[in-house]
Each structure stands twice: as C-alpha cells, then as structure tokens.
Amino acid sequence: MPKEQQMSVSVWRGGATGAFQSFDVKMEDNQTVLDVVAWIQQYADPTLSYRYACRVGMCGSCAMMVNGVPRWTCRTHVNKVLKDGHMEIGPLRNLPVIKDLATDMDPFFDKWVAAEGLHHPTQTRDDPIEAIDPTNAARVEINAGIECINCSVCYAACDTVAGNPDYLGPAALQRAWSVYNDSKDANKQAILDAVSGVGGCHNCHSQGSCAVHCPNELNPMNAIAGLKRETARNFFKRRT
Amino acid sequence: MTLKLYMAQRITALIMAPLVLMHIAVMIYAIQGGLSAAEILGRTQGSILWFLFYGTFVVAVSIHAAIGLRTVLSEWAGLRGMGLNAAAWGILALLLILGMQAVYGVTAI
Lengths: 240, 109
What we know:
The complex is a heterodimer of chains A (240) and B (109).
Chain A: E1 6-14, E2 18-26, H1 33-44, E3 63-66, E4 69-72, H2 78-81, E5 86-90, E6 97-99, E7 102-103, H3 106-114, H4 137-145, H5 153-157, H6 159-163, H7 170-180, H8 188-194, H9 209-213, H10 220-237
Parallel strand pairs in A: 1-5
Antiparallel strand pairs in A: 1-2, 3-4, 3-5, 6-7
Chain B: H1 3-30, H2 37-44, H3 48-77, H4 81-107
Helix pairs in contact in B: 1-3, 3-4
Enzyme class (chain A): oxidoreductase
Keywords (chain A): 2Fe-2S, 3Fe-4S, 4Fe-4S, Iron, Iron-sulfur, Metal-binding, Oxidoreductase
EC number (chain A): 1.3.5.1
C-alpha cells in the first residue's frame, strides 16, 4: 500500500494580530484549497473560522490569500499552489479581519454604493420592458463587467487600495462603469461625480493586478480607463 | 487624487511634451557650430520669447511634479488632509522659485 502523502498548511489564526498555525493535511486527488480549509475545520480544529457558500465559483464568498496571492479557494486546486509540499492560507488583504480566514466585507460593499454603482431607473414598473440591442457598443462593454461575482479578489490584489484606504477599488469602479453604459440608467452624471472624488477612478495607476488576479478573467482596469476617459471628456463639456 | 488634480497633471504633461522636444532640438542645433556660454546668453538675455518658453515649462513642470509627489506622499508616507495639501503647495512653491530663478538668470538683461 502506498504511503499516505501529507502537506503542511500554514493557516492564519487571530484577527488583525495573530500568527500562522501549521497543520498536516492528507493529500487527495482533485483537492481544492477550500477542501483543505474545510478538512482542517472538520478534523483538526473546529474553532477555525472561514467563509464559503456555493463551492462552485459563483457566490464569491471563499476568496482568501493563498501563498500571498488572492484566489477563489473553491476553484483553486492544491497541486496548482503547493510549493515543496507547503502552502500558506490567510485572510483577504486590504480588508479588516474578523477572525482567522473571515474578513469584514463591509468596506468593499460600501464602496460599491459610494461609486454610485446603483440603478437609477428611467421608467416605472408600469412601463413596458425596454428592448435592448445586444450588439450595441455600450451593451457589449457591459458584458464583461456583469460577470463579476463580488469576491473581492481584485480589491485584495490592488496596491492602490493598500496605499490609499479611500480608493473605491476595481470592483466598485467596474460596477459603476457597467451602470454608466446602461441605456436604462437615468443619472450618468451622478456616477461620473461619484468616481471623480478623493477616492475616485483617477487614483488608479493602471498596475493591472485586478485584471491579473480576477478569477473570472475580467478587466476592471479597462473599465477604470473608460471612466477616466468619460470624466475627462465631461470635465470640458461642463465648462462650455 | 480628484478629477481636477488628474486633469491639471495631464494638461501640464501635454504642455511639457512639445517644450521638451523643442528644448532638445534647439540644444542639438545650437551646439553644432560650437556656441560658447556667453554666445548662448547673448541670445537668451532680453528675449521675451525664451522667457515665455522656459517660464511656461517651469510652471507646467512645477504643477505636474507637485501633483505627482502629492500622490507619492499620500500612498507611501500616509500623509492625508491638510498636511498633504500643505506639502504639495510647498513643493509647487519651491519648484517655481528654483525654476523661475533659473529662467530669470538666463533671460534678464
């Protein structure tokens, strides 16, 4: 019988201050990082806190730092990230840690609202449904943005967020860009104003970590460039 | 960085780009015949054109650099609010004084 293979896993324990705790976990075929975390909680230490829901890459709940890189843990295979039989799992960067691997997502979602990524209706529920041309350029621009699962991986990856806590971040700005391009949105000026303040889109240095790490391969940097372009255009328009 | 600062930095960059190219082109052209410092000063001193050329460049570069360093101070040194703005205005004033002093030095009669 072949010898059971083990991996050593360092897991963050504590809140803002704490330390990594090491666990030996049995290696399995087709094992995800989330499986490893679940195994530790079920068989090694039931006090370990972490967050997950769907386990199939749709809900955006289980993002964590794996070897210092933000990842959706339910769709990250262990053999992709294991280095010399070891890996390190920590809570998402740039967010307050509640306990162990669970972060407080409030700042992330508050910024979605602050970026005015809200629907401003042009019609009421009594009006007929407006026909949208799927090949329209603005609609095509939205296609990528609406695949966002709100996992906060881009927010954790962003060095500008790390250096400037006011910065709205890639996900919120991408949402604002999607709503801005929506022909059914009635208040585009509110969006441009919301992304032009102290924490607005102009803080982005186009380093592109958001696009590199997005698990759905979206490109928030592109959306942010769109917002920069539109705000700059609008800057002159409003003065004439 | 707000939209106003972003636009001020981009517009000053647009102003600087052709001025830098002209500066380099004139330098290459001027030294072809082996001009001395005295001969160069003979052409720049009393010239309103050169005063405006380099004066515009100094103003543009001072604004551009002050905004850029403001961002660095904010993100790397954690400066915020009044302190950050005071530092940016200080950098702007310093660059303007140093730059305009140099422009005055080569264009005043």
